[in-house]
Write a structure and sequence with these properties.
It contains 4 helices and 7 strands; from the N terminus they run H-H-H-E-E-H-E-E-E-E-E. It has about 180 residues and is α+β, with helices and mostly antiparallel strands. The chain has one domain. Strands 1, 2, 3, 4, 5, 6 and 7 form a 7-stranded mixed sheet that branches. A hairpin with a 2-residue loop joins strand 5 and strand 6. The N terminus is likely disordered.
């Protein structure tokens, strides 16, 4: 008989960790990420009135087209994306986070961070693993039906949008999400 007993909770944690973070093993190529990022930006422009003007004012746009979040009590999320400056990809990043609490299942979402000032973009690019809520505050925009984003009224240095397959998501946070540069 083994000396160490592993309880069901420990097994679930190991299974979740392996399943969520093994996604990195199947990392997308730069071309795949670019295609998905382009599709996410098109969806953003279609679903959010005023998005084109808002994107034009941004110094940089970080897009994670497919972030998967899964959990059974303890959860994790992971996704890969690209940083665009003036519409061109300059770097690739991943985002990862862990959470504890009542949760069960999985969900996919798209996350976009718009850096509205050069200073915010420079701090992000010069960081070695940037964490939302610690290294920079992200203002998440929640829009109701029929509303548009007015870039004149939004003065935050970093603005975030989160979409699901059903549209703009509400009452979410990006705090604790860590973004790290990838070599592609």
């Amino acid at each position: 008989m083994p000396k160490y007993k592993i309880n069901i909770f420990s097994k679930l944690i190991m299974l979740l960790t392996i399943s969520v973070f093994s996604i990195n093993t199947y990392a997308a190529s730069a071309v795949e990420i670019d295609i998905e990022v382009e599709a996410a930006i098109k969806k953003f422009k279609v679903e959010v009135a005023g998005a084109e003007k808002f994107l034009a004012k941004a110094e940089g746009v970080l897009v994670f087209p497919d972030v998967v979040k899964a959990g059974v009590g303890i959860g994790g999320e992971y996704g890969e994306g690209a940083l665009l400056i003036k519409g061109k990809t300059v770097d690739y990043y991943n985002t990862a986070a862990a959470s504890i609490g009542f949760q069960f299942g999985a969900q996919f979402k798209t996350v976009m961070l718009l850096f509205m000032t050069k200073d915010a973009l420079t701090k992000f690019r010069n960081s070695d693993g940037w964490e939302a809520g610690v290294d920079g505050s992200v203002a998440l925009i929640e829009l109701g039906a029929g509303k548009d984003i007015n870039s004149e009224n939004i003065k935050d240095p970093i603005v975030g949008f989160v979409f699901s397959n059903k549209g703009l998501m509400y009452n979410l946070t990006l705090e604790g999400s860590k973004m790290t540069k990838l070599k592609k």
